[in-house]
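Risk register update: the risk of archive-format incompatibility is retired. Evidence:
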Amino acid sequence: MPGRSGEAAGGGAQIAPLNLETAGAPEYDQLAAAISQAYGRLDGLLHNAALLGMLGPIEQTDVPTWCRVMHVNLTAGFVLSQVLLPLL
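Archived output:
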């Protein structure tokens, strides 16, 4: 977290890279702990990640692609919000 901002600690937007496709509970918890230790709180949270998958008829969409899209676009945002809620 420290060193990844556009401004000094205590102000401005921060970027915390996290692979939402592969992250598990430990990675989410580590992110929350790092934010808590560095800043003590969050003033906001922007979910800015998405997978498009394949454009086409639903019958041509394979199940693994569907699962990846739903995980990144829906489940990961839910988990991230849940683990960071105490800091908001």
